[in-house]
Amino acid sequence: MDTRALEKDEILKAHRAAPRMGINTQNSQRMNAMAFLNELSRAVRSSGVSAVDYRAVPLEPSPRDRALWQTCRAWQIVLVPSGKSELFMALELRGDIVIGSNPGSNEGLDVNVSGLDGYGQGVSRRHVLLRPTREKLYLLDLNSTNGTSINGMPATIGRAYTLADGDLFSLGRLHLQLKIARKPEPLT
Predict the structure, then answer these.
(1) CA of 167: how far to CAs of 40, 86, 144, 151, 178, in Å?
(2) How many structural domains is the chain composed of?
(3) Domain membership flag for residue 85
(4) Element (H, E) at 36
């Protein structure tokens, strides 16, 4: 089994821990994504359980990416599906990552959203690429069938778009909100 893509069990890891920490997950569905993450963080800190794990992706960065992140901390982001805040994905970006949906395989994907009904929502097998740099985080549509939009505006294929904290991007009909937990900073 290819472990490069996020599995549904990993996505649900924090959600499963929430009841043990006194968080009502049904109420969390009504909270906005940031409020849920804040409540989860408070509960984690007070429980003595380790903080939310950021999954390092890709597992095997290119030599260029390895050199880039040797001198500074990598981006940490949270992708929150619209209406399903309990299924958030916490990622540490150590290079270019491909997000797509393929229920049969994770090959060629760093983040597989098939567990979020990606295929049924019109997400292509290789839909977008997230490219982290020291200063900015970019999104590029990979010639997807059903298109990509950022904050309601259609993305043009072949153009890099700068993402900011709170941006909403749509892969077909799957809407993901970006929360930036940490921007790159020099290692001390």
Answers:
(1) 21, 18, 20, 6, 5
(2) 1
(3) yes
(4) helix 33-47
Which two structure tokens, joined as six digits, stand for 124? Answer: 């292509």
Asked if residue 2 belongs to a domain, the reply is no
Answer yes or no: are the C-beta atoms of 113 and 99 closer than 8 Å: yes
Q: Identify whether 162 is part of a domain.
A: yes
Range of 16's domain? 8-186
Look-up of token digits 């890709």? 58
The tokens of 126 are what? 């290789």
User: Dihedral angle at the C-alpha atoms of 139, 140, 146, 148, nearest 10 degrees?
Assistant: 30
**CB-based contact 78:179 (threshold 8 Å):** yes
| C-alpha neighbours within 13 Å on the C-beta side of residue 103 | 8
pTM exceeding the 0.90 threshold for the entire prediction: no
Shortest CA distance to 117 belongs to which of 101, 132, 134, 138? 101
Express each pLDDT in 31-90 by its tens digit.
455 565 566 555 545 544 445 678 999 988 999 888 888 888 999 999 999 888 788 899
Residue 88 is classified by DSSP as: -
**Looking at this protein, which amino acid is placed at residue 135?**
E
55-57 and 128-132: which strand pairing? unpaired
CATH number reported for the structural domain that contains residue 66 in this entry: 2.60.200.20
For residues 46 and 35, is the Cβ–Cβ distance under 8 A? no
